[in-house]
């Protein structure tokens, strides 16, 4: 497994697929780029070998990655400069089969739009001409930097075109399958480890300093398309002092969004730090409800958030939205509402909090569905068939 960067997106997906391969009886290890000064995040599951490759300059790093990558099948996670390119070179050099996994629409992810309207941007420019000039100069410098950075958004389309050179492609959603083809390989979790019977929710809430609170949990990186603002507005409507939206972990790319939300809703939002992957079942156990309120945008439609299968495996009541593959994944086991609708989210939360028995029943159905379709065993069967064909 070739992860694009062992401290950023794609690592969790690499771990999950590698674990499924191990469960199917194959050998697997994860290789990836790790910049100086950064550490592997999340911490890998026990028993999974992870090899970090460091290097200054893309040419040096590429050379080291290619020399490190050696297996009967090379499996690149995401079509990015530090995964698909070294994997493709290593596969051709060693005459091995190459599989590439796509779990995001990278081009859409890297050109996320400015949330302000054109009128608002123009008004800001008139009020702050000097600040605007500095911002434009900074943007020009970033553009020049992006041109020489192989990981920048300017080359996202190029890496997508390299998918045609792979021997096989796997995709995490039906939306991505429609765009890139390939074998549908949904997110998966170790449902033996993510097992609610192993934890006491009250004790886990107390351990996290959330005792006495009703916890709405979002495990992941805060981004504007994730709909956290809609959830916070729904909490304004409910106006219950015991409610807290707990954002768990996440990567640095989401710090600005989480900070902006915390400044506006300091009374509702709680931010917890990062946790090792092995700790996540205990963390999710502390939730009363898991919220996955994706907005209906190209980025979100192409994603299947891993937090969704985490919540299903832990038998949690889920409030989510009709975006992309989400309705198909959760079926009748969650509260599915229209996207960008704080009123609908508030109504779903009110129903869950008013009827704990029904919340528990749907949570149990969610776990059954996860074990059947999104466990390591379920995904291992798909991978075993793919490897046999290769």
Topology:
Blueprint lengths: L1 E2 L7 H13 L5 E5 L15 E5 L4 H11 L4 E5 L6 H11 L2 E6 L3 H5 L7 H10 L1 H20 L7 H6 L6 E4 L2 H7 L2 E2 L16 H7 L6 E6 L8 H11 L4 E6 L6 H10 L4 E4 L7 H6 L3 E4 L5 H4 L4 H8 L4 E4 L4 H5 L4 E3 L4 H13 L1 H18 L2 H14 L1
Parallel strand pairs: 1-2, 2-3, 4-5, 5-6, 6-7, 8-9, 8-11, 9-10, 11-12, 12-13
Helix pairs in contact: 1-18, 2-3, 5-6, 10-16, 14-17
Care to describe what's here?
This protein has 390 residues and is α/β, with parallel strands linked by helices. It folds into two domains: 155 residues, Glycogen Phosphorylase B (Rossmann fold, 3-Layer(aba) Sandwich), CATH 3.40.50.2000; 179 residues, 3-Layer(aba) Sandwich (Rossmann fold), CATH 3.40.50. 46% of the residues lie in helices and 14% in strands. β9, α11 and β10 form a beta-alpha-beta unit. The longest helix is centred in the middle third of the chain and has 20 residues. It is globular. The protein starts with a strand and ends with a helix.
- Enter the CATH topology name of the largest domain: Rossmann fold
Radius of gyration: 21 Å
Low-confidence runs (pLDDT<50, min 5 residues)?
A: 111-117
Strand content: 5-15%
Q: What is the first-to-last residue Cα distance? A: 16 Å
Looking at the structure, what is the overall shape? Answer: globular
CATH superfamily of the largest domain: Glycogen Phosphorylase B
- How many domains, as an integer? 2
What CATH architecture of the largest domain do you see?
3-Layer(aba) Sandwich
What is the CATH class designation of the largest domain? Alpha Beta
> Which structural class matches the secondary elements?
alpha/beta
Counted beta strands: 13
* Mean of residue pLDDT values: 90
